[in-house]
From TrEMBL:
Residues 6-93 form the DUF1883 domain. It holds the Pfam family DUF1883. Residues 88-109 are annotated as: Disordered. Gene3D superfamilies: Atu1913-like. This is DUF1883 domain-containing protein. It comes from Rhizobium miluonense.
Length: 109
């Protein structure tokens, strides 16, 4: 198993609900990749992987978790000069959906 030839910062977001918003703060232009567990594993093995994000030219940036699952954020400098300090925080944690009672027919029909 090979590792990427560039340095990166990894943030394990654990399990998150769809719609949860995360905020990534950067000190310089960097690549930001939001990936599920299997794509993060592919990333660490330098295999083709899918992610949300891309080159972040401003800070902070916000991304929404697209579906329930275990998520990871990677901040890297591949293709950019220098190093970037980074931090990640959850800014809008979507609450669990509430069970609602079905409307009742009060007319007795």
């Amino acid at each position: 198993m090979s590792k990427p030839a560039f340095r990166y910062s990894h943030y394990d977001l654990k399990e998150q609900r769809a719609g949860t918003v995360i905020e990534i703060t950067l000190s310089a232009i960097a690549n930001v990749r939001l990936m599920n567990g299997s794509n993060f594993e592919r990333f660490t093995e330098t295999l083709k992987h899918q992610f949300l994000g891309g080159v972040a030219k401003k800070s902070p940036i916000r991304l929404a978790i697209p579906e329930f699952g275990h998520w990871h954020v990677v901040v890297d400098m591949e293709g950019h000069n220098g190093l970037a300090e980074s931090s990640v925080k959850i800014v809008d944690k979507t609450p669990a959906p509430r069970m609602q009672k079905a409307p009742q027919d009060v007319t007795g029909k």
